[in-house]
Design brief:
Helix content: 10-25%
Order of helices and strands: HHEEEEEEEEEEHEEHHHEEEEEEEEHHH
Structural class: alpha+beta
Low-confidence stretches: none
Number of helices: 9
Shape: globular
CATH topology of the largest domain: Naphthalene 1,2-dioxygenase Alpha Subunit, Chain A, domain 1
Length: about 375
């Protein structure tokens, strides 16, 4: 059954006249289902980190807007993503991250798959001790693989397989960031998987986390410590068709007891205090500074709950150098403080979305362009699917 689109035409106007997305898309199961198909199903969405799969045989189950997926590092060191479901009776194959010495075995009837997704064993399928049956071709019933791509240590998926090449998706951002990192080898950055990761749960819709991250307007009131040295007037808006955010001209290089972390080698000296914070639609938040980068995955757990997963990245060799541990811990602590400060306001916005007195809100033409363009992107995705 198709669910009608609700009041999206008012989102697409100029920022002076536009209203935000209506409450329906923040609080209802119907709105959540629409976005599952039209936004997460039809875009390159982030689901996990490559460092979640540290060795051959590692598996990592994840939910993307209610869809069970399974990331696997196979015996050839290739990362793949499958629908986390057995071809026999639809049982989830894995519930927790682990490293397999052998193959993927369904806990229900022991149908077994190798780590490339091939169905290799169907015990007793034809009766006791008859492990094959006429009409069941194993090669036709392997795991269903999802189109995936790894960039900057993030595993992205294209669930429907028609979102276009990932290289096209990221080309605009790479061109923008060539001003800071001309070489553009973000794959060379190393994840701090042990001491540079952090997670938190938010009682809010995933979109509110995006909206809050991509604008600096709230800085003086929500982040007073950060605002003491990187003030509101040190920030600028970033507005593009498929991402938006904010930049700062007053980033302080990370330092702990006189030690500074190594910087990206080709970062221009005259822009050493520049940093940019990008919401890469739909659900990846990126931060780029001269001495480290980070990525935050927003994983919806329903219309009113979101899991945030942070991973920090550094120059090659930094993570394995024990002398950098104190500085890296300082970086993590600083970002934990910032993201924790946001919890109260995004959860308050979620509660406010239950009020019939709120109609999507009014945008500031000067301060809210990053948020407005995100609303337009979501509305366009919903309209394009015609759900």
């Amino acid at each position: 059954m198709n669910i009608p689109l609700i009041n999206l035409d008012r989102v697409q106007g100029d920022i002076e006249q536009a209203r935000g997305l209506p409450n329906h898309y923040y609080i209802t199961a119907e709105g959540y289902a629409q976005e599952r198909d039209a936004v997460f199903g039809a875009s390159w969405a982030g689901v996990a980190f490559a460092s979640d799969l540290p060795e051959k045989g590692s598996i990592y189950p994840v939910q993307l807007a209610g869809m069970p997926l399974l990331a696997v590092r196979d015996r050839d060191d290739v990362i793949r993503v499958f629908h986390n479901v057995c071809s026999h009776r639809g049982v989830a194959l894995a519930e927790e991250p682990t490293t397999l010495m052998g193959m993927l075995c369904c806990p229900y009837h022991s149908w077994t798959y190798d780590l490339t997704g091939k169905l290799v064993a169907t015990p007793h399928v034809g009766g006791i001790n008859k492990h094959q049956v006429e009409g069941l071709a194993c090669e036709e019933h392997g795991l269903k693989e999802v189109k995936s791509h790894i960039w900057m240590g993030i595993i992205f998926v294209d669930l429907k397989g028609n979102a276009g090449p990932f290289e096209e998706r990221i080309s605009g951002l790479l061109e923008r960031w060539s001003e800071f990192h001309p070489a553009g080898d973000y794959e060379a950055l190393e994840a701090d998987a042990e001491s540079g990761n952090w997670e938190q749960e938010l009682a809010c819709n995933w979109k509110l986390a995006v909206e809050n991250y991509c604008e600096a307007y709230h800085l003086p009131w929500i982040h007073p410590g950060l605002n003491s040295y990187s003030k509101l007037d040190d920030h600028y808006n970033i507005v593009e068709q498929s991402y938006s955010g904010q930049g700062s001209t007053a980033y302080r290089l990370s330092e702990f007891e006189g030690y500074q972390l190594p910087k990206i080698p080709d970062w221009p000296a005259e822009r050493i205090e520049n940093a940019e914070y990008i919401s890469l639609y739909p659900n990846v938040l990126l931060g780029l500074q001269a001495d480290h980068a980070f990525a935050m995955l927003l994983l919806p757990r329903g219309p009113e709950r979101t899991q945030e997963r942070l991973r920090l990245f550094y120059m090659p060799g930094v993570v394995s150098d024990s002398s950098t541990a104190a500085a890296r811990n300082s970086v993590l602590k600083a970002w934990q403080e910032v993201f924790q400060e946001d919890i109260g306001v995004v959860e308050a916005m979620q509660r406010g979305r239950h009020s019939p007195g709120f109609d999507g809100g009014k945008f500031s033409p000067v301060m809210d362009p990053p948020t407005h363009v995100f609303h337009r992107w979501v509305a366009a995705a919903l309209e394009a699917q015609g759900v």
